[in-house]
Amino acid sequence: MFESLSDKLDLVFKKLRGHGVMTEENIKDALREVRLALLEADVNFKVVKDFVERVREKAVGTQVLQSLSPGQQVVKIVHDELVSLMGGGEDNSLDLAAKPPVAIMMVGLQGAGKTTTCGKLARYLKAQRRKPLMVPADVYRPAAIEQLKTLGRQLSIEVYDSQADQKPLDICRNALKYAELSGFDTVIFDTAGRHQIDEYLMDELVHIRDAVDPREILFVADAMTGQEAVNVAAGFDERLGITGVVLTKLDGDAKGGAALSIKAVSGKPVKFVGLGEKLDALEVFHADRLVSRILG
Ligand code: GDP
């Protein structure tokens, strides 16, 4: 078992317990542990640096309480700061308040979990009494179209009948018209991914965005890719203006620090987390749960 940050900090502060105030000197080692814990959880080093500075400012001069150990006190400061950094208390729900059909565009690198998340999201929206249509617009990976159609059958949710020889932009335009005529109120576009950002793909996504005018552009990030996800998210955000993030594969070993970094760097909220391959393994994001996981 790993020691929790709280345990580590209690060791650091052993001598201080029960008296005095926290000073630059006696908090130095504690902040080192905080820094390491965040780096281990895959938080971007620049984000960590700024963050630790803020915790230092908050902690120095704090009276050591009788009721909490100094370690617990620092953990509480770190916890509260992290929750606020992650947008705790903010409304991170989907913005679907527009004239239907409302478009949601899913973007991200190949393998991040876009297609799976389309299915999960459609299921989630159906449970909220919406009528979603899923649109496969990834013609470069023909299996992706079939994959979405299979998910649609499992969920009894209609999937637009795209073909791999059609242009993604045409598919998306036509699908939106189809949704309008057929009474769907939400359209989820599953766009193509690459192994890395490339200009051709970005141009295509920009054209699709301009054609379907999405209320939400959700960047799907694989939690296992750690800090790299931050650069990729920034790249997508710069070109497309993402509205939120879905962090997938949090059922694995990843601690989820990438979410913190993406939010800190791009300012865009994490809206959902993926917790498994099954279609019900999607949760609305809770800042305090992710923070407990990072500090755990
Ligand atoms: P895409 O290329 O971005 O469309 O990615 P896919 O949706 O095809 O997903 C890639 C792989 O990741 C598949 O094997 C999915 O089952 C898996 N996957 C997606 N989301 C999750 C998740 O939240 N947890 C786990 N464990 N696997 C996931």
UniProtKB/TrEMBL annotation:
Enzyme class, broadest EC rank: hydrolase
EC number assigned by the record: 3.6.5.4
Binding locations of GTP: 108-115, 190-194, 248-251
GO molecular function, one term: GTPase activity
Keyword list, A-Z: Cytoplasm, GTP-binding, Hydrolase, Nucleotide-binding, Ribonucleoprotein, RNA-binding, Signal recognition particle
Subcellular location: Cytoplasm
Domain SRP54-type proteins GTP-binding: 269-282
GO cellular component: signal recognition particle
GO biological process: SRP-dependent cotranslational protein targeting to membrane
Catalyzed chemical reaction(s): GTP + H2O = GDP + phosphate + H(+)
Domain notes for this protein: Composed of three domains: the N-terminal N domain, which is responsible for interactions with the ribosome, the central G domain, which binds GTP, and the C-terminal M domain, which binds the RNA and the signal sequence of the RNC.
Free-text function comment from the UniProt entry: Involved in targeting and insertion of nascent membrane proteins into the cytoplasmic membrane. Binds to the hydrophobic signal sequence of the ribosome-nascent chain (RNC) as it emerges from the ribosomes. The SRP-RNC complex is then targeted to the cytoplasmic membrane where it interacts with the SRP receptor FtsY.
Subunit text: Part of the signal recognition particle protein translocation system, which is composed of SRP and FtsY.
Protein family: Belongs to the GTP-binding SRP family. SRP54 subfamily.
The protein, known as: Signal recognition particle protein
Taxon lineage: Bacteria, Pseudomonadati, Thermodesulfobacteriota, Desulfuromonadia, Geobacterales
Originating gene: ffh
Part of the full-length chain shown: 1 to 296 of 449
